[in-house]
Amino acid sequence: MKGMDSRAGAQVIKADVPLADLFGYVSDLRTITSGRASASLTFSHYSPVPKNLADKVIEDVKGALAAK
After folding, report:
1. In total, how many domains does the chain have?
2. Among candidates 39, 41, 50, which has minimal Cα distance to 17?
3. What is the spatial distance between Cα 44 and Cα 16, in angstroms, rounded to a whole number?
4. What are the start-end ranges of the H helices in 1-68?
5. How far apart are the C-alpha atoms of 56 and 59, rounded to whole Å?
6. What is the pLDDT of residue 4?
7. What are residue 47's phi and psi, to 5 degrees?
8. What domain range includes position 55?
9. What is the pLDDT along the chain (68 residues), one digit of tens a residue?
10. What is d(CA 7, CA 26) in angstroms, rounded to the nearest whole number?
């Protein structure tokens, strides 16, 4: 969470979120706000993947390649 502002009677929330965590976010946001909310997503930066997640991705790819 980077901050929250008020603009024209609406709340504006600014946060850095991994792209993988955003799939389905806009649909969920519209559902819980009865369609009144909107989202604007902008690329911020690249960041190293934590080792435990990197290891899982590598194992998944190795498994997929071995299955071919």
Report:
1. 1
2. 41
3. 7
4. 25-32, 51-67
5. 5
6. 93
7. -145, 145
8. 3-67
9. 999 999 898 889 999 988 888 889 889 999 999 998 988 889 999 999 899 999 999 999 998 888 87
10. 20
Q: Does the global pTM surpass 0.70?
A: no
Tell me the CA end-to-end span of the chain in Å, nearest whole number: 42
| Cα(36)–Cα(38) distance, integer angstroms | 7
Number of residues assigned to the chain: 68
CATH for 38: 3.30.70
Give 66's strand partners: none
Q: Answer for the pair 56, 48: CB distance below 8 angstroms, yes or no.
A: no
d(CA 12, CA 6): 6
Q: Which tokens sit at 28?
A: 């969920």
